[in-house]
Specification:
Helices cover about 30% and strands about 20% of the residues. By secondary structure, the protein is an alpha+beta fold. It has one domain (about 30-165): minor pseudopilin epsh domain (minor pseudopilin epsh fold, 3-Layer(bab) Sandwich). The strands form two sheets. Strands 3-2-1-5 form a four-stranded antiparallel β-sheet, covered by helices on one side. Strands 4-6-7-8 form a four-stranded antiparallel β-sheet, with helices on one face.
């Protein structure tokens, strides 16, 4: 009776080939993970905008979305630290004692979120009709790596409708509302 098996040398060669294939696949996997994280941030912000818009129309109250942690609105473009959604009773864009917090979102781990609007406010506000307070604009998400292929944008019109910015020319970089490739501000 003859025993068949593999030798130690054959096992080492097989492991070396598997390691080389794994190293070649790792950069593609990192890119996939970064792309999925960007998509998750984008989808979360679209959901946030839709939630605030619906809450304003349903409750017939002004609802504000602002960057910040806990019970305060933060400085401009600090959205990566967290997001507050609240009924803004005096419509001042700040969280006051009489305001009711509807929900909070946690911060973003890898990247920065920018809000740019027509009225140049650090917050987004929906009136009791569900329309924005004349604040058409966009949310731009940029990863810490500054790779534009992982950057995403939400375009918001004055009626409060949010849409994802497209990649019309299929170069891997999405375009803004004017059809130009987006650019990320440098992250300090």
């Amino acid at each position: 009776m003859q025993i068949h098996g593999i030798t130690l040398f054959e096992l080492l060669i097989s492991l070396a080939v598997a390691a080389i294939v794994g190293m070649l696949a790792l950069p593609s996997f990192d890119s996939l993970v970064a792309s999925q994280r960007s998509a998750a941030v984008l989808n979360q912000m679209i959901g946030t905008v839709q939630y605030a818009r619906n809450a304003a129309a349903t409750m017939r109250q002004t609802v504000t979305i602002c960057p910040g942690e806990k019970d305060t609105c933060g400085k401009r473009n600090t959205w990566q630290h967290g997001v507050n959604i609240f009924i803004d009773r005096n419509r001042n864009g700040k969280m006051d004692k009489q305001d009711t917090v509807l929900t909070r979102l946690p911060g973003i781990v890898d990247g920065k979120l920018y809000w740019r609007s027509f009225r140049n406010r650090s917050y987004l506000q929906f009136r009791s009709t569900g329309l924005t307070n004349w604040q058409n604009g966009n949310f731009l998400f940029c990863t810490d790596s500054q790779n534009l292929k992982h950057a995403r944008m939400i375009i918001l019109n004055a009626q409060g409708r949010a849409r994802k910015s497209p990649d019309s020319d299929n170069d891997g970089i999405v375009e803004d509302a004017q059809g130009e490739n987006i650019t990320c501000p440098s992250i300090p």
